[in-house]
Amino acid sequence: xxxxxxxxxxxxxxxxxxxxxxxxxxxxxxxxxxxxxxxxxxxxxxxxxxxxxxxxxxxxxxxxxxxxxxxxxxxxxxxxxxxxxxxxxxxxxxxxxxxxxxxxxxxxxxxxxxxxxxxxxxxxxxxxxxxxxxxxxxxxxxxxxxxxxxxxxxxxxxxxxxxxxxxxxxxxxxxxxxxxxxxxxxxxxxxxxxxxxxxxxxxxxxxxxxxxxxxxxxxxxxxxxxxxxxxxxxxxxxxxxxxxxxxxxxxxxxxxxxxxxxxxxxxxxxxxxxxxxxxxxxxxxxxxxxxxxxxxxxxxxxxxxxxxxxxxxxxxxxxxxxxxxxxxxxxxxxxxxxxxxxxxxxxxxxxxxxxxxxxxxxxxxxxxxxxxxxxxxxxxxxxxxxxxxxxxxxxxxxxxxxxxxxxxxxxxxxxxxxxxxxxxxxxxxxxxxxxxxxxxxxxxxxxxxxxxxxxxxxxxxxxxxxxxxxxxxxxxx
Amino acid sequence: xxxxxxxxxxxxxxxxxxxxxxxxxxxxxxxxxxxxxxxxxxxxxxxxxxxxxxxxxxxxxxxxxxxxxxxxxxxxxxxxxxxxxxxxxxxxxxxxxxxxxxxxxxxxxxxxxxxxxxxxxxxxxxxxxxxxxxxxxxxxxxxxxxxxxxxxxxxxxxxxxxxxxxxxxxxxxxxxxxxxxxxxxxxxxxxxxxxxxxxxxxxxxxxxxxxxxxxxxxxxxxxxxxxxxxxxxxxxxxxxxxxxxxxxxxxxxxxxxxxxxxxxxxxxxxxxxxxxxxxxxxxxxxxxxxxxxxxxxxxxxxxxxxxxxxxxxxxxxxxxxxxxxxxxxxxxxxxxxxxxxxxxxxxxxxxxxxxxxxxxxxxxxxxxxxxxxxxxxxxxxxxxxxxxxxxxxxxxxxxxxxxxxxxxxxxxxxxxxxxxxxxxxxxxxxxxxxxxxxxxxxxxxxxxxxxxxxxxxxxxxxxxxxxxxxxxxxxxx
Lengths: 477, 477
Description:
2 copies of one chain form a homodimer. Helix content of chain A is about 35%, strand content about 20%. By secondary structure, chain A is of the alpha+beta class. In chain A, the strands form 4 sheets. Chain A has a 7-stranded antiparallel sheet with strand order 15-12-14-13-17-18-16, with helices on both faces.
């Protein structure tokens, strides 16, 4: 097996030849799964894409599994012919993770969605991979606990583990990586593995749980996860504050974190995004960089946080600190943020967003965003910015007319410059979206030759025949 | 290379033949390091042991490195002859991690101890591996920030990363695993690797940082770490509460966590430990299971936490809730906990402690501790118990007369029963001490054949000639 060096300038991912299942394999799968094996074009197409703008690459078959024994069966059957296997949750990944670039069998986990246990005493829940975050939170409604990871889409837990998802909550509750206790995984030889015990911490050997979190289906198939839960805040309050500059808004968040204010969310909208939400939601916000904040705790504790952040914001020129405590008020106040993505799309009706995902150290965030805004202006792009400020993560929604290929090219060129800039600032090409197909070209610049070589060493050791989601992440042939 | 199956019933670790450096290799090291290469017996002995009760196994040479280039030099020189390499920080590990069971060269990092940068804006610091936690916290004194991981000993950051250390703070601030941003590592071929960017989160490929955290020097040598810092609490308060039973004390902690009280520390002393500290520190505590608690925040927030926990404690029969706010009062109140280890040793003067490290899900902690106390009583052991309740982690200090080998055997037999019990409760053999030599025999019971096989696959892939700390963790030949 030869390791192919990544070509940092090539936007085309490395891919191997298509490895179709034989007629015999399909017959074996049909015998076991009956009508839960699908080969109809519509189903294949639906499973050969995600929320990225890549053209679909359908698998050769889709199997709807219902339990781990079925997963083992499919893995063993496909391993015999070195047929690729791609796990599929809700299809909400955004970097081409799910495309069957070498064909193969897609394992759809959506029907393997039992909540196996909820333990309030352990602040944990064990779920099958196909359980969605909203399904889990509905089941937790009476416990006083909740599952915090929220990437926006109603993703499956298995998918969120595979992509190391995060979102607006992670400034307080951490990312998927921070909320995992244990995983069950089916390996390339069909063996089942539990990555850890159910204890909240352990020093018993290599961290197998974190090896699979963020592995994007390339090392094994996640069938079950035990996740941490958090107590719901007694009360929640929301605030919106406008600032004279992006730098001032970011400065306010950093100083609040340094003061130990446990911000529950801290979302930045740049001027263009504010303009977009005003047009979309008729909100009449001043056209200034704006922070959407959320606080949790007792009423006293919230009041205290409000006073602290209010003072800090004032020191950074923050103005019109607008508060909401009652659920309906909060919901109304946060509406612009919740609708921001769709509002931004309306800046250029008919366009789609090529969404970037740079993440940099907090102290470099203001510079990185300012330089990025200058780049956007210089190249005449329409690219509103949304930021998870507490994580140093921000998204540019580069609006692209699908009928004008030169716009997609310009967006890609912008993305390359942005990632180079994020790396110069000590950051990463992707804070929460993952590598998939789209970011493979940047891995070497980010991790160096030694880092990419090590990732390939791990992949080769765990999946020697390259059956799990081939051609993704640090992909090799 | 053959994988040797672990024998779960054997207390003797698997070990290979001694692999001594050649005279030529020693000469090469001498030429480069002059008097920073030591082969004197006293130095070798000092580097061939840790705080465990294993008899020392000295390396063949000790090199005091001062920078990463020197580490690379030693690794490359030793790799040519497949001579083992063992990283050494402050020698405070407790499971035989540092013993040179196959001989080789010990790399002492204590002189590679520069604090490379402190970034208040990023809430992070980058340090060389030999920096100790107290050294780092001293350097942070004026920043309002601190480094939270505190395993008791004044360990080095490199050592704490290698063993996935934690301690009394982790209920609030997490373990070493949760406080890492980036590592620099020298690999088996002498290549240098940075495991991640400096961003606070990333989804860019496999989690290399967590692969090395807890790897106990078996996959590479950690030369540098970027760690998270936390804001110091505006105020701190301490409390001591006695309970009618261990179960009641644990119930109080679990309920407090479920209510979202951000406990800074929650330490349990069982009756025997209370008796020991009373005798040692003349504290006059009631001989009941006792919780030592710490709270941080603003005065208002602390008052609120106090009221909540007071009410919860009352519901569990907690009594004599004793509070301290001023530093000297807090220090006095916590003295029994701080001196507990030495106080317990005085229960049997001249004995040493064989300290266990089981960790179980919170909901199983009370049962596990109760069953363990019954075991202690049944076998006539003297074994006071200290618990990091919020993590589900507890230590039995089994007091053993070093002149009576049958006591060491009885302690080992107790440890085996305890670990079997912890595993039955869904827990781990080691919450924070690590595997080293001592827990190797339990890895298979904890992780199953698939888990141990995967750990060995990873070890073989990253260190094919088994030069890094051979014979430890999932050790193989």
